[in-house]
Amino acid sequence: MTSPLRALRLRARRSLDPAHYDYYAGGAGDERALGENERAFARLALLPRILRGAERRDTTVALFGDRAAMPVIVSPTAFHRLAHPQGERAVARATAAAGTILTTGMAATTPVAAVVDAARSERPDAAVWFQLYLQPEPEVTEALVRRAEKAGCSALVVTVDSPVFGRRERDERHGFHDLPAGLAAENMRDLPGTGPGGLRAIAMSPASSWDDLRRLRSMTALPVLLKGVLHPEDARLAVAEGVDGLIVSNHGGRQLDAAPATVEALPRIADAVAGRIPVLLDGGVRRGSDAALALALGATAVGVGRPVLWGLAADGEKGVRQVLDLLHTEFDHTLALCGGRSPADLTRDMVVTRGRPAGTGGSPW
Ligand SMILES: Cc1cc2nc3c(=O)[nH]c(=O)nc-3n(C[C@H](O)[C@H](O)[C@H](O)COP(=O)(O)O)c2cc1C
Ligand SMILES: CCCCCCC(=O)C(=O)O
């Protein structure tokens, strides 16, 4: 049986230029991390509780002052106008209509102000977060922060899993290294060092450090999340540095191919953080039940990347709405089947590993 999401992916594949489909679908190296993200969810099972549910569940979650209708938000993905002419605007409207949070970013093909406007045209209190890579020149990072603040973004997501760009062999095969004429990373215009309307390249720097993060912290009052945390010691350091939230992520398997599946890294990070700040996860979430598993293992919410791109390429705003509504319905259904009333009712004792009987060392958590 083809799931609705897989069907959308097939439609997206038919509508996209093969090089662009592979850019979206692909991962680094042998795509082990990419594949494991999904397979690791499939290796887990939920032990449902009984006789304690509710006719109507509350699926909302509070995140850094924003509220989402479900614990599934939209992760930052680059270059939406490769998928659809309405690009990030369509994603913004659909995400706002679905009542959840959109993370736009440096590599958007639509300026952040226009993305926020599109979201707020659908829902005046829609929340949009801004993702950035720390740039080697602090004044460039600061200009991006000011741009996001001015646009009305309510949080900054700093991606820290990309000291260098991952090696994506699909892109190498296609020779896909540049955007087609007419498309650009619009947030990179008019920054320090460019002439009027000029574009800067997005830099990834292996020399980025906690000092750079501290500098960013001092630039803004917005909540700062670190995206791409996999080591529990880094999670502890981040808490000590005053970071507001973490996203357990391996960049959808596009950076370090030897990285673990995110849902397997999550429990140790959740333990290290011990509830002091929210922990989010992305990578491989394809069903509402995947979101439920991640929440049971300590996440406050999950992000989705590729599913949104498939919806966008297949059917524009409507396709993205379909993806988000599907995940919401599935999450609520899973919660009901697990005897839950709200996300907080999903707990670690409810997660076991398939193939190992529960109660006989079946749970590695
Ligand atoms: C095509 C594509 C572009 C991406 N661009 C970015 C980006 O610009 N910044 C970033 O932090 N993460 C980026 N990511 C990673 C996502 O934010 C997210 O971590 C990942 O897609 C989650 O995995 P999933 O696609 O399995 O849901 C990108 C992912 C994809 C697939
Ligand atoms: C040097 C261009 C950076 C674009 C970032 C896109 C991205 O993160 C990806 O995974 O692709």
TrEMBL record:
PROSITE patterns found in the cross-reference section: FMN_HYDROXY_ACID_DH_1 (PS00557), FMN_HYDROXY_ACID_DH_2 (PS51349)
One term of GO molecular function: oxidoreductase activity
Xref: SUPFAM superfamilies: FMN-linked oxidoreductases
Cofactor names: FMN
Domain FMN hydroxy acid dehydrogenase: 1-356
Residue numbers annotated as active site: H251 (proton acceptor)
InterPro entries: Aldolase_TIM, Alpha-hydoxy_acid_DH_FMN, FMN-dep_DH, FMN_HAD, FMN_hydac_DH_AS
Keywords per UniProt: Flavoprotein, FMN, Oxidoreductase
Recorded superkingdom: Bacteria
Positions with a binding annotation for FMN: P76, T77, A78, Q131, T159, K227, S249, D282, G283, G284, V285, R286, G305, R306
Pfam hit, one: FMN_dh
A GO CC term assigned to this protein in UniProt: cytoplasm
Residues that bind glyoxylate: Y23, Y133, R168, H251, R254
Stated family: Belongs to the FMN-dependent alpha-hydroxy acid dehydrogenase family.
Protein name per Swiss-Prot or TrEMBL: Alpha-hydroxy-acid oxidizing enzyme
